[in-house]
Specification:
The protein is mainly α and 126 residues long. It has five helices and no strands.
Amino acid sequence: MAQTLDEHHRQIAAGIAEVREHCSRPIPDIAALSTARLRLSRTSAARSQYVRDVLFPKLRAGADGVLLSQLDDMQRAFAAKRLASSEHVTTWSSKAIAEDWEGYRQAARRIWAMMAPVHYQDTDSR
């Protein structure tokens, strides 16, 4: 499971880097940016599906009451992030990006921070 999640995270980091590269340009290439955004959205959706359908059920199967509560909190936070991501995509259509390139770039930086994979160091492997 860890390898699969790591691969999802690697793909998301690569997708963010691709969109970030587009956003570093003074003028948007809307067609290329749209393709990169679609690819990142699909990658993010695949990670979400994996977490929702595989990871959470596996963790819940062996969880005690404390862990179940923590998993509930995580699932709520996860759902809120998915909603924020969906709202970002809806708000920032290709037309909206073309009309407000700087506004999109600012909004994109916020969404990247939210989407970025979190890596935890295994303290037991010291």
